[in-house]
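May I ask you to review the protein record following this short note?
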Amino acid sequence: MRQRAERGEGAVSYIAVVLLIAAISAAVVTSSLGSQIVGFVDASVCKVFDQRCGSRPVAGNAGPSPSLLPTGPLTQPPLPTQVPRPSPGPPPPVPPPPKPKPPNPDQVETENALNETQIGRDALKWVHDNGIKVVYRKGGGSYWSDEDKVFYVDTNQSPENRANTFVHEVNHAKHRNEPDPKKMKKEEYVDKALDEETQGTVDAILNNQQLQQERGNGTPPATLLQNEYETASRNAINAENAARAKAQRPPLSPEEERKIGADAGRQRVKQAFQNGEVVSSVDGHTYPQNYGDSWDDANSCFLWIFC
């Protein structure tokens, strides 16, 4: 039994020594000898408790220690190839707006004449407000195209006559596609078309009269059928006043004179269109002939078969 007691005391003493060594190991665990001391302590504990401990790696030949860090080489993966972005730099210059074409000299002269009269200013404003295209070119006559919605002004005229023509064509534009040849007989259509021509010509005469009043000295000269219009107007007024005097009635008032004179002048202008006194500036045909052909074209059957 004695031997058992001695062995117990020896074991206790040995454990105390081991614990002391463990405390010292904790202090130096981070030193270069840390791994050797820890190995010695482990071996001593195994010996005291007669434990079989697995073989541990010898210091200096130790394998990799457990770690939360990756065990492989700490190499950074290659970055994707990037093309350096160029510096934005200043924005490209903005091209200036195109310069408007200078107005046609014929247009300038015509519009200057139009702006001298109230009738001309009203006509010019109506054209601008309604987006009417006006084409100035030499030759070809002056006319309004219902299909194209365009004025064609022949510049082989004075600016004043171009202004009068402009006023005339505005009347046609205001009655675009009127009269309708498909909605009336040929004689009615021709008569209404001549009424429209007459009104446009009267408008041009009145515009020219205003120009003459503004400028004085009898300029510009009379426009198409102006002399005929004014002569018929004066004759009608004089005839009516003579009849009134004979009947011992008072003469016409200024308002009555304007109405009687305008009616007579208008009738004289229409007569000039009806009898071929005035012909088209485009083809030289009479107006009744041209408007009759227009009615035929609008109402003719295909090869005179399908009606």
Notes: Confidence is low (pLDDT under 50) at residues 1-9, 57-62.
